[in-house]
Amino acid sequence: MSEVRACARELVQRVAEGGEIPIASLRKLGELMLRSELVALSHQLLEGPPEFALRRAIELAGLILAAVARNEREEEREATK
After folding, report:
1. How many Cβ atoms from other residues are within 10 Å of residue 17's Cβ?
2. What is this structure's pTM?
3. Cα–Cα distance, 74 to 62 (Å, whole number)
4. Rg of the Cα atoms in the chain
5. Average pLDDT, stretch 2-18?
6. Tens of pLDDT along 32-73?
7. Which of 13, 27, 33, 56 could form a disulfide with 45 if both were Cys (CB 3.0 to 4.6 A apart)?
8. 24-63: b (≥16 Cβ within 10 Å) or e
9. How many Cβ atoms from other residues are within 10 Å of residue 4's Cβ?
């Protein structure tokens, strides 16, 4: 996810600066997101056998909660600067 986050940050920064945004960079963000662990686990949960659904859902929930906690810590750090 860190690569996805870096790519997204770069895109937003380019837009904010009014810089040129090549279509390749937009597609790169889409490709990175589709290869992310969140998307992969989501597909496994939706398409996998029912006996593994709970395990996949717990893994997915853990990743989501970890990402939210990380974002909250980053926001707190930014607020104290």
Report:
1. 8
2. 0.66
3. 18
4. 16
5. 91
6. 999 988 899 999 999 999 999 999 999 999 999 998 888 888
7. 56
8. eeeebeeebeeebeeeebeebbeeeeeeeeeebeeebeeb
9. 20
